[in-house]
Amino acid sequence: MLWVMFNIALHEKARLDTPFLGVEKEATPPESMACPGVLIPFITFSFHVWYNNAMKSISIETLQIDPGDAVERIKDFIISSCTRDGVVVPISGGLDSSVVATLCVAALGKAKVTGLQLPEKQGNPDAEYYANMLAKHLDITSVRIDISPMLKAFGTYSYILSYFPTRRWKERLVRRFMTSAEGESNYVRVLNGQGDTLIRKGLASFFTKQRVRLVAAYSYAEKNNLQVVGCAHKSEELTGLCVKYGIDDAADLMPIGHLYRTQIMQLAQTLGIPGEILERTPNPDIIPGITDKYQDVLGVTAENVDLVLYALENQFPESEIAEATGVAEDGVARIVELYRVAKRNSEHAKKVED
Fold this sequence. Notes:
Blueprint: E1 2-11, E2 14-18, E3 23-27, E4 42-51, H1 52-55, H2 67-81, E5 87-90, H3 95-108, E6 113-117, H4 126-138, E7 141-144, H5 148-153, H6 167-177, H7 186-191, H8 197-223, E8 227-228, H9 234-239, H10 261-271, H11 275-278, H12 293-298, H13 302-313, H14 321-325, H15 329-345
Parallel strand pairs: 5-6, 5-8, 6-7
Antiparallel strand pairs: 1-4, 2-3
């Protein structure tokens, strides 16, 4: 099937845009039509074409980048953006922070990069192990600030989950309540202004952890004349899977914010990130029992989330995304809903329009 959208307009100079193909062209009236001092209307049209067979070819290869070129561009960005004595990177031992810290060392040198660990008593015990592994691998200074006392002061640990005696019990309870009785994601429902009080209070407690981490990071950075480097990427931003005003969402520099997670994995392989870190699942380390935020929240792998996001960003008809990407229709529907909610909620401060 061929799907075509025509836009017809009168222009003195018309522009033909085909963003799906990554091509921009301009059409102008033939010279024979030109008449000095006289504006001759010129009828032009722009069109967007999607072919089903082209859509079927969308795969991980579609998101392939030149990692060497991307690394050099990001290094230049970090160098030009660093205006203080150095940078501090919150490190969790996950893929994203490991790539960002490595890029900062490549750009600025290890003496100007500090890794900041911000553990808390309900956090993933593996996080410190991998964060220390990264710091040793990069030979950078690593600072540890336990944020548990601050979280206790906020009442974060007074949530019902804290009264379950073991981490295993906490994880089982979280997995039980991540999906509503209707089969919907409770995480998405809360972001959409829905969900019951118990779930809403629980997520508020978890989100507080990332916001306290941001406060701790900026406190350390400002005392030491450093800039905070964020580790959020496009896949998180487009799905709202990073906490608004949290440690991943706000920073002075955001070196990988333009890349999908799939592309960050390509950078990681080029940069020589330790294999144990590459094999880790995308664990947010704020909610017990959530070991893969894409699979556990959306029921879709990180790679498939990226394919659907790519299709949405490139204006594929939503009704045909499942066929184009090979992702199940119910998975596509969950991602599309979260994409819309995240887009609405991502604005940091709504303002009155003139």
